Fold each of these.
Amino acid sequence: MYDFTEPLSIETLAIRAGQRRTAESEHSDPIFATSSFVFDNAADAAAKFSGATEGNVYSRFTNPTVRGFEDRLAAMEGGRFAIATASGMSAILCLALSVLKAGDRVAVSENVFGSTVSLFTKTLSRFGVTTDFVALTDLSAWQRAMSPRTRLLFVETPSNPTCEIADLASLSKIAKEAGVLFVVDNVYCTPVLQKPLEYGADVVVHSATKYLDGQGRCVGGALVVNDRALYDELFNTLRTSGPSMSPFNAWVFQKGLETLALRMKGHCEYAAELADWLQGHPAVRRVFYPGLSSHPGHLLALKQQRGFGGIVAFEIHGSRSDAWQIIDHTRLLSITANLGDSKSTITHPASTTHARITEKQRQVAGITDSLIRIGVGLEHPDDIKLDLRRGLDSVATSESRLAD
Ligand SMILES: *Cc1c(COP(=O)(O)O)cnc(C)c1O
């Protein structure tokens, strides 16, 4: 492996960290498509099984390609250890199985990823874990949520889809004082835009499925931590329960990381341009993008992020059917709830990603029937605008006709 003596920038780590060149002198990272590994002799097998000697035993435990991805991601997050998992959800499950027991409570920000809500409220609740939902930006509510049984303070920032920004430094302080693990789902920013460990997070959660891959090919996830004892707990849970990442997927993600910094730069630039353009369209009532100075989280995002991300949401003057009309007028954008792809996506959150929560919860979260979310991809922004303009113009015309 490269032994870096100089501190390298994230762009360089994304390309160089975590590679262990084999005796074949390969330039690009190889894929170790093997379920198990062989030993030099019986004593070597015994030593590796007992853990007395480090080394590969079985790919549910460790695999060189998976470790390459883990080491690269850990270096980029500025963390000591990463654990790759089969999906983002299994990363969160692995964390929960490692640190929670019956009777514990978790404090989770309102509006986290839908399956994360289900995991805590439907699955973990059956094992005696209680979830308290807290408004992402309400620091005194977080303070109040820290009960003696609380074990995790879990946030996603920016939030989906309205891009609210959590104050990472303040939340870290609240969690530390309460003796609670501070967990940040960093899927939307990636380490290129935000490094939660620098702000005191104990655990960073990733769905590699999104920007880390960046081209919609594979499902995967990861946890990044600095604490050795916590890492050992997580690793034991993973090797025993088995949601390991496949070597092939690890290779795709590792190659994905090489272009992550450039891609995030593109996503941010195009999203900012789109947000600005949407603000000027007569059919648009309000745009949610942390890069806009009108956004309530703008200053915080400026402080703790290196860019404002690739998600833009906007509310139109009109109803649900007008919002659907805008979506149905697109020809280029993909109508899907996924994001973090070079292909731009368009979603109506109220009837898809946030359909299962109550109307009242949607109102609190600002997810109205007239809200549309764009996961801005890497197509030319002029083409994205053109694709949206058809629907927006037709809604603007019908609205002005109503006004007459
Ligand atoms: C997609 C996503 C997850 C879950 O990841 P999977 O890879 O789909 O299991 C978790 N958190 C956020 C913010 C996500 O967008």
Note: The domain at 10-258 is CATH 3.40.640.10 (Aspartate Aminotransferase; domain 2).
Amino acid sequence: MGALCVLTYIGVGLVSIVGAVKLYFKMTAGKCKSTRRIDGQVAVITGSNQGIGYETAKDLARRGAKVILACRNLESAQKAADRIKKETNNQEVIAKKLDVSSLASVRQFCADLMKEESRLDILVNNAGVAGMRRTITDESLELHFATNHFGPFLLTNILLGLMKKNGSGRIVTVSSVAHTWTKELDLENLNSEKQWEPKLLYARTKLANILFTRELARRLKAAGLSGITANAVNPGGVKTAIFRHARKTFKYMIMVSQFFFKTPEEGAQPTIQLCVADSVEGLTGLYWTDCKQSRSSTLGDDMDVAKALWEKSVEVVKLSDSENNLK
Ligand SMILES: *[C@@H]1O[C@H](CO)[C@@H](O)[C@H](O)[C@H]1NC(C)=O
């Protein structure tokens, strides 16, 4: 056999393996099969100017909801809203400024929303960052934790005031399988006070999303708000812009692996299902992968850690009595 022939075999072999892996990802992706309409409902989706958030917003708009795109970049959100309006023929798509990494911005956004809206049915905590340089916000929060956990924590707590009015609603927080990378969560180091561990930061924020969801579901039940559910979702590997500000090496790694990843439309399916499907009605405090209930890491199941994280978060965001809707 000539060298060329061997190379051809290796080449064909590699292409087949890559193809098979890609096909596997496609086939296990999961799809929201619900055709339910949600006319009259109001939905807030953070980070919805692109990616999974955008696809989720578009889908909910198509189903008749009034959709609020809550984004840091208002101009980009406005363009996204215009595109969704055009594509879905739903004119009730609104872009609003929200920098979820800033507690002040969260409070401002909520104050405006409570004035303008009389109900809230769906809240999707989707905005997130990964692989950022070490940054402490002017509110002394570490940027990953500020954006991925503390901001959504405050946003959800305040907006529960609006959701409670109707007594039913769905809160979906976008987590990730990356939460399994970490085996511990030091509550005294959430804002990198003691140590800066860039590799595990994203994982820890995604773990926090699950713990937050579990404790939120428990508190909703305890407060007699069983019509409001909270779930965390792992969208799977999705081609997203989450790493757009990431350091170079991280970026290249992601770019290569993205070849296998889902499109944002596919990646949005599990989130959409949790927002609208009748099949998940009443299910709460759960972690989902590819539209199916799944297990988180052991740490993600630990209700003592979940409770401690909640209490710590109340302290960090200085949740006031009037912002606490789960008394
Ligand atoms: C909640 O909203 C639905 C749909 O608009 C409505 O039928 C229901 O009466 C509302 N419930 C409360 C308690 O306001």
Note: Residues 3-27 form the longest helix (25 residues).
Amino acid sequence: MALDIGPGDAVITTPYTFFATAGTIARTGARPLFCDIEPETFNLSAPAVRRFLEAHCERRDGVLWHRSSGTRVKALMPVHLYGQVCPMEPLLAIAREAGLRVIEDAAQAIGARDALAHPAGSRGDIGCFSFFPTKNLGAFGDAGLCTTQDEALAEHMRILRVHGGKPKYHHAFIGGNFRIDELQAAVLNIKLDYLDDWSARRGANARIYDEAFARAGLEAHVATPRTLPGFHHIYNQYVIRVQRRDALREQLAAAGVGTEIYYPIPLHLQKCFAYLGHGEGDFPEAERAARETLALPIYPELAAAQLHYVVERIGAFYAGGAA
Ligand SMILES: *Cc1c(COP(=O)(O)O)cnc(C)c1O
């Protein structure tokens, strides 16, 4: 909304993310345009974006058109999935060349940094954070915030946040109720002091998993998460790629281990996006990730023995060879 994206426009993003990423695009009236992910990090693939622009878009009258839909491509929306920053350098280069704005979905990545210590949400025109209770910094209900380095954009977002009114009761814009409740802000203000410690403990848990999986010799069945060299991953989720995922998940549930699938249906196959005309096979890496990924418990309060138990149960599943 702040970038004035609406009907007739389009925004490029990933099909392998929480629904809100594309939901926000569609709710402005714009069209989500999907590009596939990198299989190792599950994040938007810059080469895929480049290929998409070359094959399906053209510049005419100073506008970048998506040929088949006749929409104007206005922005790129990478997602820093699971708490690892999506490498921004190649995407920012594409955006500069193509004249696109960049909106970072940093909902899962507060405090995550790339190899040059750039924090998630600091490189694009706007960074978006969520304080939904499942995030590393979770409120007791709903909350979120946007970041920007652009003073004019910051002012515009402040106005949109309060129904577009400034001064009060004078509306040059149509905004919405996008405020954080005082109550949630108070909770977050206290929890913020603990955030780095909680994220460090998630990281320590991830290292225990990594080592335990390596020792268990499960490479043939389980791929542990890959952190890019020098990147600081905050492990909002610890997501493994496995064979016979659904059977494993059932067996873990029976052993008292809660797991989750982020995400079972890629966005291009969601019913509400049928109008985009996609089908099975359009984004094979996103579809494969949706079939193979499983998020293990990673929260800061877990004891090492609990993590070892999880790995041991997974080892037992594959040793059993049960279907
Ligand atoms: C949680 C999440 C959101 C949305 O957050 P809300 O607080 O529900 O608006 C958006 N994108 C991603 C990737 C998320 O994980």
Note: The mean pLDDT is 97.
